[in-house]
């Protein structure tokens, strides 16, 4: 499926555009142009979202920009099988002080069998705030513990990101992911500049 507008992006997971589909961003998406408030898919995203070939060619990376997710939840709730590549997440906010797990691409990511791949992604001007597990990309990733699920993050650039937590107790905050449990985690060529 080709995505050209914010309204088309908002159709992911609505029945006509399945949450396990393969999507290509044709242009930068500015969510300020939405006709109605953004509604995340009701089921986990297991498809692919591709914006461009690599961050080495800035003209090829497509932005998802200008959206406050505070009252709606994550942009996409990634699950095993999901792939995000060549996308810039720009000027996105997700504030939910009572939600235990907060991240732009998933709060509580419960993985089954398979991997999640996040490649050549730029994260800039993003703010996330939650209760106990908070990260720019995902709050908490829970694997099966049997070695069958991995999160592969490669070529990611994070700058001007604020990660904050409302609970002073047992908390986990991270630039990429707040907490990873029983899942493999592979990082390659990651550059992070974050404020906590």
Helix content: under 10%
Structural class: mainly beta
Report how far apart the termini are: 37 Å
List low-pLDDT spans.
Answer: none
Number of helices: 1
* Strand arrangement, major sheet: 1-2-4-6-10-14-18
C-alpha geometry: globular
**Radius of gyration from CA coordinates:** 15 Å
Notes on the structure:
This protein has about 200 residues and is mainly β. The protein has a seven-stranded parallel β-sheet. It has a six-stranded parallel β-sheet with strand order 3-5-7-11-15-19, with no helix packed on it. A three-stranded parallel β-sheet has the order 8-12-16, with no helix packed on it. It is globular, with a radius of gyration of 15 Å. The chain is built from one helix and 19 strands. The chain starts with a strand and ends with a strand. Strand 1, helix 1 (about 5-10) and strand 2 form a beta-alpha-beta unit. Helices cover about 0% and strands about 45% of the residues.
Provide a concise account of the structure shown.
2% of the residues lie in helices and 46% in strands. With 196 residues, it is mainly β.
Topology:
Elements: E1 2-3, H1 6-9, E2 22-25, E3 29-30, E4 48-50, E5 62-68, E6 83-85, E7 87-95, E8 101-102, E9 108-110, E10 114-119, E11 122-130, E12 133-135, E13 138-142, E14 149-154, E15 157-165, E16 172-174, E17 177-181, E18 184-188, E19 191-195
